[in-house]
Design goal:
Strand content: 15-25%
Helix content: 40-55%
CATH topology of the largest domain: Tetrahydropterin Synthase, Chain A
Number of helices: 8
Largest sheet: 4 strands, antiparallel
Order of helices and strands: HEEEEEEEEHHHHEHHH
């Protein structure tokens, strides 16, 4: 009984080993290249399915080693960060740049042929060449001034243009290499992760920022002065219009007053004695309104009206 159990266990173990040697799995984020005696063609590429479609899902069969071998690669976009290195700008300012590149396995068969490795080893060999290209591509920064890389005005920043030029340079290097030996990869984007300024560059940036702020302040003052001048001009124009209207109105009132005065003078001319009497009464009314104490001659001025009634008979020149 014991021997039978050992035999069954041995058979199951052998079956498991055989099953393991003739099957392989490709995850949804991977692509596999199946080689036969280390040779492969386009039909040997197997891509993983996200939904595991098929009777066996992502499980596939192959001939056992050493007849067939499977090399799997991650086909997702990967990020490679470059080391911090110093770089001079066009205006001879020193900056420390940390660049990165986003890349992806585009042709698994070419990628296998160029690396002859599996998984991490293949990626490490590809990244070694990519890092070398990225280090050379970083020289694009030397075509720009420091103000193009660091500026308080977003409109003057040219970092996006620098990154596009770096990406173009990387793709040109890849294209030139394709003629010799295709790598089976593609570059998605290139960017600058960090830009560290040296002491000299920091001073230059601070000076440039101060100059820019002063320029903005001067522009604001100039615009304010121009606006104030426009307001003063409008106020003076409005003032002139109001004074002109008021002058015309005053002239009209004076004309009306002069016309009324002429009529009054014509009336007074008809009886000058009566006119003089009315004027004197008006003067006395104003004088005595404040209750003053006066000493007057009874025979002169107002006193004579107290002792002798005024002669209010119309003069010979007045009409009856």
């Amino acid at each position: 009984m014991r021997n039978k159990a050992v035999f069954v266990l041995a058979v199951l173990l052998v079956a498991a080993l055989i099953f393991y040697s003739v099957t392989f799995q490709v995850r949804f984020n991977e692509v596999a290249v199946v080689t036969t005696f280390d040779k492969a063609d386009g039909a040997a590429i197997i891509r993983g399915n996200e939904d595991g479609a098929g009777a066996l899902g992502n499980l596939h069969f192959k001939w056992p080693w050493p007849i067939q071998k499977v090399r799997s690669y991650d086909h997702r976009v990967s990020r490679l960060d470059d080391l911090l290195e110093e770089q001079l700008t066009r205006d001879q300012m020193s900056v420390v740049v940390n660049a990165y590149v986003m890349w992806q396995v585009d042709n698994p068969l070419d990628f296998y042929r160029s690396t002859q490795e599996d998984g991490r080893k293949a990626v490490a060999r590809a990244e070694s060449r990519i890092r070398s290209w990225l280090r050379d591509t970083r020289s694009e920064i030397s075509k720009y001034d420091l103000k193009d890389l660091t500026n308080s005005d977003p409109a003057q920043l040219k970092l996006a243009q620098v990154e596009q030029n770096m990406l173009k340079s990387m793709r040109d290097k890849l294209k030139a290499n394709e003629q010799e030996k295709p790598l089976g990869i593609r570059f998605v984007s290139v960017g600058i992760k960090r830009l560290i300024l040296s002491d000299t560059a920091s001073t230059s940036v601070q000076t440039a920022m101060a100059s820019n702020r002063n320029s903005l302040a001067q522009r604001a003052r100039s615009e304010g002065e121009a606006q104030a001048e426009r307001i003063r001009a409008r106020a003076n124009e409005t003032k002139a219009k109001i004074l002109a209207v008021a002058g015309r109105r005053a002239q009209a009132i004076r004309a009306e007053g002069d016309a009324a005065a002429v009529k009054q003078y014509d009336t007074f001319k008809k009886d000058e004695t009566f006119a003089i009497f009315l004027r004197e009464l008006e003067t006395y009314k104003k004088t005595f309104s404040s209750s003053p104490t006066l000493i007057i001659d009874a025979k002169e001025g107002f006193g004579k009206y107290l002792l002798e009634p005024p002669n209010l008979q119309p003069s010979s020149g007045s009409s009856k």
